[in-house]
């Protein structure tokens, strides 16, 4: 659900992340009266070391999803979910060099508070498993030097004032995940080519310390690194899911 649409329909719902390459424009919706992607105590930050670089294939990514990465892609943001029903994950940036994939950075992150799904639907509070292009960015913060087209808009990406203080800057930086959205349009664009029931608004965005409505959240430093690194000319994609489904 897009933030502009949310404000027209309800003040309590939130928007965050967008067309599966083989199969969302703000982060799914939150339940009435709740902050986005958070019920109960905040979950702890994910821990553990990042998978080692692999000269041929992406670590932890099986043939099913690896085959969906476009041949021209030279940058991959891999999101390794801790478990099917876990909100904890790790984000790793890989760059293709000399015919192999090399790790450029890794960060603790969060995904949908109920975990992951192979069949995402609106308000299921799970992040979709799959391979998606990354084609646009934006947020309430000024452009930090993004190579992706950056939509700076302090109104469209502002969190509702009713949300807790910890959530007020969730959308300071966002990168649209092209699940059920029109690639290349600003993250706040509300078009849903697959229909509203399939959800939308799935983004990479700033972390508030717990699970989200469907997006993937990470530290500010991580978002700044991705914004300054992901280059449309290198056809960046995100490969995301729990470790079991990623490795299938």
From TrEMBL:
The keyword Zinc-finger belongs to this UniProt entry's keyword annotation: no
Name the chain's protein.
Lipoprotein
Q: Where is the signal peptide?
A: 1-28
The transmembrane segments are: none
Which controlled-vocabulary keywords does the entry list? Lipoprotein, Signal
- UniProt-listed Pfam families: YkuD
Boundaries of every L,D-TPase catalytic domain copy: 96-239
Q: InterPro entries, from UniProt?
A: LD_TPept_cat_dom
Keyword Signal part of the UniProt annotation: yes
In residue numbers, the region (Disordered) covers 30-57
Organism from which the protein derives: Streptomyces graminearus
């Amino acid at each position: 659900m897009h933030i502009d649409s949310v404000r027209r329909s309800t003040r309590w719902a939130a928007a965050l992340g967008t067309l599966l390459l083989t199969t969302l424009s703000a982060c799914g919706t939150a339940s009435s009266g709740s902050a986005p992607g958070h019920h109960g105590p905040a979950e702890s930050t994910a821990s553990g070391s990042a998978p080692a670089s692999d000269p041929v294939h992406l670590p932890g990514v099986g043939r099913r999803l690896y085959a969906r990465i476009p041949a021209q892609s030279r940058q991959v943001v891999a999101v390794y979910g801790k478990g099917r029903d876990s909100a904890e994950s790790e984000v790793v940036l890989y760059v293709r060099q000399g015919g192999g994939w090399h790790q450029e950075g890794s960060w603790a992150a969060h995904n949908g508070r109920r975990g992951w799904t192979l069949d995402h639907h609106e308000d299921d509070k799970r992040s979709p498993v799959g391979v998606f292009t990354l084609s646009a960015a934006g947020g309430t913060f000024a452009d930090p030097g993004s190579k992706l087209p950056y939509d700076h808009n302090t109104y469209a990406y502002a969190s509702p004032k009713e949300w807790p203080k910890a959530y007020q800057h969730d959308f300071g930086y966002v990168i649209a995940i092209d699940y059920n959205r029109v690639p290349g349009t600003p993250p706040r664009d509300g078009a849903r080519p697959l229909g509203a029931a399939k959800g939308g608004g799935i983004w990479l965005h700033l972390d508030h310390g717990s699970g989200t409505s469907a997006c993937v959240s990470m530290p500010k430093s991580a978002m700044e690194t991705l914004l300054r690194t992901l280059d449309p000319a290198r056809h960046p994609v995100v490969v995301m899911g729990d470790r079991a489904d990623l490795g299938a």
